[in-house]
Amino acid sequence: MRALLIDHSTASGLRLGETADPVPEPHQALVRVHATSLNFGEVRHGIEHAGDGAVLGWDAAGVVERAAADGSGPAAGTPVITIGYDGAWAELRAVDTSMLGVVPAGADLGAISTIPVAGASALRALRRIGPLLGKRVLVTGATGGVGRYAVQLARRAGAHVVASTGDPAGHGDGLRALGAHEVVARPELADGLVDGVVDNVGGPQLVAAFDRLAAHGTLVSVGHGTGEAEVFPFGALFGDEGRHDRSVVTFYLLDGTDLVPDLTWLAARVAAGDLDPGISWRGEWKRADEAVAALVEGRLHGKAVLDVG
Prior knowledge:
309 residues; alpha/beta; 7-stranded mixed beta sheet; 15 strands; 26% helix; ER; NAD(P)-bd_dom_sf; NADPH:quinone reductase-like Zn-dependent oxidoreductase; NADP
């Protein structure tokens, strides 16, 4: 099969080449990939640390080529959305049936491929905060893949959404169109306290966002794009009548829980037009080097999609 292979002799660290077809385990479906979306973490760090010839990739959408031998999962011919630790940047992918969702017939599989990491992370991070109806939720890094989905899902759940982005003038209208009630340049500029935070940035912004938490509030640390340490000043963790019982929680999407219901629900929402996948770059996978460069250099706000084949 063809795949994007790690090749550290190229500028992007990738080349389109041939490799062996994956051999599914009994609990895995063999999926023919139609599209894959890129995530900052896998292109910024994954390519650098992988060995030559490896096939990376977390997100992919396609069609089941061969159903799982143990009888689990969808039948051959079913359009699906998939997530895994690697293998998405290839024509064929072996996927655990607990890590794929069913896609409505006729859906744009490129749009669907944006969901696994970004959409599922946003959904599960918001759930960790708790019921959102009538609550105030701050989303940092709101123009990224997770951020865009978090803004939309929080608004659908009945929250007052505060979106934080480094360029409110350039992205404010777009974020408000997605559902943000307020758009600020930094967490500390939010108007009042918030009940929950989905933090996609880390570093000093996480510290500043935690300072905006009201009593019983929860900050979910999803992204770490800055690469900077989180240093809390003395007194930041004090509690008083209005600021007690505040939490910072870590996040890991592939924690072993069944992702099928969430992926299937999100795919239906994107297919119906209820959620905007936020594609800011799309092209054939032979142009992967362009997409990788744009992501690493911070020129993309949203998702990059590669059409396979």
